[in-house]
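Deviation from plan, reported transparently: magnesium ion complex.
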Amino acid sequence: MTIKIAILAGDGIGPETIGQAVKVLEVLRDQHGLGLELEHAPVGGSAYDQAGTPLPESTLALARQADCILLGAVGGPKWDTLERNVRPEKALLQLRAELGLFSNLRPAMLFPQLASASTLRAEVVAGLDLMIVRELTGGIYFGKPRGIRSLDDGQRQGYDTLLYSESEIERIARVGFDIARKRDRRLCSVDKANVLETSVLWREIVSHVGKQYPDVTLSHMYVDNAAMQLVRAPKQFDVIVTDNMFGDILSDAAAMLTGSIGMLPSASLDASGKGMYEPIHGSAPDIAGQDIANPLATILSVAMLLRYTANQAELASLVDRAIARVLDDGLRTADIYTGTGRKVGTREMGEAVVSALKSVS
Ligand code: IPM
Ligand code: MG
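Because the crystal trials were delayed, the predicted structure below was used instead.
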């Protein structure tokens, strides 16, 4: 089987980290028998510069037709003053919506080698392994009406709408339960049911779905408490399922527990497992083009791609082991460097993973 991947490198550090991930894919093709077809297309601010839109028709067409997408990052100060509809971030939101990528998996896993890179005490985070399941195509990100209107008293008022239907809640709840089933069988649903109507329905539906998963222990937590618990005692969590905006916020917090947002991959999947894979760190324009960005989150996104779309669990764990090897060897990009080991750049880190891949089996 040949897997066709749309490579959307995007902006900022995207092209640099994607460059390393592509090398990893090529080694898997050349030495480990992975059937692979790669096609590149522009996205984000760089696509806007070329084509006047952050998501050209041809890029969307490729994304639809490929088996999955590997995306670097989009955005940067250069495009921050553009009108919202052509901003780089719009491409991401559109890809999510157009491809129906409603389920966003954001694992936060601490590599034992990096316990000292976290801003939290090592004993609080050592062994951390949690998964945030974020609803990605609904909620306040997409609800209508939204806008900025003029009031009778002459001032303007901004408004957004938070909407969740039963079926939207049910399908993301199922993803959460199914994943919990493959892990430690604990699911924490995060909401704001003490204030929001949507959350009252959310809690009801998640509890209802939970009846079909008697083997999974379900708990509920308010989002403010969840934010606190994530930094107080993050190891209490196994799987968290939550809505679009809460998931956006909590996943950044969870990322930092692991020492660096530069280590975290993500998968955004549709109902059939087709997906878009991307590091969660964004375009980091301040360090773009300097060969200092950490490519490991993008390479770990390749591992997720192998697991969830390509059905190549063995190759995925091969990539995981190659990364562990490189960390064991003491290689550190600046974001995970704590004074010991050897500080390396983007390319050297990527090349180290590639040569580890050639030797691990
Ligand atoms: C993320 C990002 C995006 C989001 C932005 C860039 C639109 O923060 O993927 O978490 O808010 O979903
Ligand atoms: Mg975010």
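The domain at 119-258 is CATH 3.40.718.10 (Isopropylmalate Dehydrogenase). We consider this an acceptable substitute for the interim report.
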